[in-house]
Amino acid sequence: MGISTYWKNGFHPYSLSFAAYLSPNFSAAELERVYLQIVADLTKKAQQENCQALITYDYAPQLLFNFLAQDDGFNLIRKTVEPKMSLQSAMEGLTPIKKSNLKAITLRQLQLDSEMREKIAQISFRDYQRNHLANPVAEWDNMVFADQLEDAPLALVSMNQIEAYCFSFEDNPNELSLGWMGAGDLSRLMELQQILLLWANKNFQVLSGEFDSTDQLSMKTYQQYAFELCPVYETYLKRL
Fold this sequence. Notes:
alpha+beta; 7 helices
């Protein structure tokens, strides 16, 4: 009639993550009873783990359990898309922008400048926290540069200041994936991304990314390119 599983996320340790399923082949009263029992069990486990919330996610449209959860204090906190398109199409669709005299730097170069490396870590952590207020992050320094492409343009700098940054990864072969990004001025981010795509054009065929509705710059980037349609990933959270 129903089943659930749960896990802790070391990156977001203040919530207990779970997935639950209810079979629709039972009466409404039976389903409600099982639903309430699953939530009670998960709540007890979350409290034992010193978690402040329950969190669950799935692609829209939500299955029965998550549908019922929306009337039981679970609120939609974020929508995420992970679209793809050909890198060549992304390049053809770009509107050239006037380049500034800012300097693009890579992770390989950052490894030789500990002060600048720390600045990007701090700025990206601050931005990530602001975009994930509902489900706070704890760890950052040990993972922020993990899997970042070492020779990809990572940031634009001027007078030792970070003007824009955009992390990029190769999660799949020949696929450039855009990750965390930030800038004080959108035009600086667009400039950095154009430099990044020009760099990637020789070795990558596909452009992808992970774009959250809570991140304004991320959504601006998503709207900038003619990505293919993709499923929408919805995250629901209930505070305890």
